[in-house]
Amino acid sequence: MPPPCSSSRVPSPDHRDYDPPTMVDTERYAASFKMLDLDGDGRITAAEFKELMGTIGVNFTDETAAQAIAMMDTDGDGLVSLEELATYLSRPHVTPDPPDPG
Ligand SMILES: [Ca+2]
Ligand SMILES: [Ca+2]
């Protein structure tokens, strides 16, 4: 006995290709990134970070700015991309350590 065909009783869920939801939502952080990326080249440098901090009245030295960049720079090229910024900002944060008086 052949099985009945052309049965449309089972609703077929959408099995279309879609991007896996594991990527960080960079769109969410694009505005913040643009604020930091002063020259608009798509990368935040330590100099840009330092300058931006200066505009809001926070004095960063070259060294502290580089340290801040390094915290976000996951691939180690010394620059922060939108993906890196988004990854950093979307990550759960721990309480930052107080500065070491040295
Ligand atoms: Ca830049
Ligand atoms: Ca990087």
- Name the hetero compounds present: calcium ion
Q: Helix count?
A: 4
Oligomerization: single chain
Strand content: under 5%
CATH class: Mainly Alpha
Which consecutive residue ranges, at least 5 long each, have pLDDT under 50? Answer: none
CATH architectural designation: Orthogonal Bundle
Shape: elongated
Write the CATH homologous superfamily.
EF-hand
Distance between the termini: 85 Å
The main sheet comes to: none
Order of helices and strands: HHHH
What's the count of strands? Answer: 0
Q: Which structural class matches the secondary elements?
A: mainly alpha
Mean pLDDT: 84
Helix content: 25-40%
Examine the coordinates and then state which fold CATH places here, giving the name of the CATH topology.
Answer: Recoverin, domain 1
Radius of gyration, CA atoms, in whole angstroms: 23 Å
> How many separate domains make up the residues?
1
Would you kindly provide a brief summary of this structure?
The protein is mainly α and 102 residues long. It has helices spanning 30-36, 46-55, 62-72, 82-90.
Descriptive report:
With 102 residues, the chain is mainly alpha-helical. The chain has a single domain (19-90), classed as EF-hand (Recoverin, domain 1, Orthogonal Bundle), CATH 1.10.238.10. Helices cover 36% and strands 0% of the residues. It has helices spanning 30-36, 46-55, 62-72, 82-90. Helix 2 crosses helix 3 (62-72). The longest helix is centred in the middle third of the chain and has 11 residues, at 62-72. It is elongated, with a radius of gyration of 23 Å. The structure holds calcium ion (CA) (2 copies). The site of one calcium ion has 7 residues, from loops.
